[in-house]
Amino acid sequence: MRFTKMQGCGNDYIYINCFKEKVENPEKLAIAMSERHFGVGSDGLVLIMPSEAADFRMRMFNLDGSEGKMCGNASRCVGKYVYERGLTEKTTVALETLGGIKILQLHVKDGIVESVTVDMGEPVLEAAEIPVLSDKHPVIGETVEILDRKFDFTCVSMGNPHAVTFVENVMEYPIEKYGRVSECHPIFPDRVNTEFVEIVDDSHVKMRVWERGSGETWACGTGASATAVACVLNGKTDRKVDVELIGGTLTIEWNAEDNHVYMTGPAEFSFDGEWLREV
């Protein structure tokens, strides 16, 4: 089975063209291929599939085999893949995900997709729809005790649940210690992605993320989007902000006119390969 390794700001996934390949047991395949010693190594598995509702359909699986509703970095990579591998000539692509249909705007130069802007849709702020167990609306400053510290979370869904907290010196912050516990805290019925954010100025923040099912990743598009929304809700930044991640920078804008969040960032091919092992 042929596969392609791609990354967006260091958030790396294995992509399989399901127009040509047949994938059975994607949950088990995601676990096997994502393992970094005996597999390919990745943050998960992405299937590029036909869609009856859009131009293409994306299914994504975390490295523990759980299926995610949406991944911003993966959606950008899908846009680059389908254009440069000749599956479409469109530069505006509709992508079906479990988090809804997302519109990708491909920024192409000399046949190469240099970056992609994804319409991430409107942020979900209702506690029950995120979901998070809270009486707040929106969920700003929800205090949660995790191990030896109390965190004030702002909760947002961008197709999957996020809890954003503001810290100092984020690059030195022990996010594995607290992210691992926050992911499964009882206040989050479907688990949660946790963003630890340092404010640099009103147009620049630094972020690290603990993703449910994957642990810390070098980037998270939905997490960067949720972070931008949380920053605005807490009066910490403008509506357009550069989110600096370990693997690179994403530009996020929460548009005041249509209430949609727009994410712009890179997508890159790493290599192609052939998977030989049954799972």
Compact overview of the structure:
The protein has 279 residues and is α+β, with helices and mostly antiparallel strands.
Helix content: 10-25%
Report the oligomer: single chain
**Contiguous runs where pLDDT drops below 50 for at least 5 residues:** none
End-to-end CA span: 12 Å
Q: What number of structural domains do the residues give?
A: 2
Number of separate strands? 18
Q: Please, what is the CATH homologous superfamily of the largest domain?
A: Diaminopimelate Epimerase, Chain A, domain 1
Shape: globular
Beta fraction of the residues? 35-45%
Which fold name corresponds to the CATH topology of the largest domain?
Diaminopimelate Epimerase, Chain A, domain 1
Largest sheet report: 18 strands, mixed
CATH architecture label of the largest domain: Roll
The H-and-E topology, N to C, reads as: EEHEEEHEEEEEEHEEEHEEEE
Estimate the mean pLDDT confidence. 97
- Structural class by helix and strand composition: alpha+beta
- Under CATH at level 1, the class of the largest domain stands as Alpha Beta
Rg on CA atoms, Å:
18 Å
User: With helices defined by DSSP (H or I, 4 residues minimum), what is the helix count?
Assistant: 4
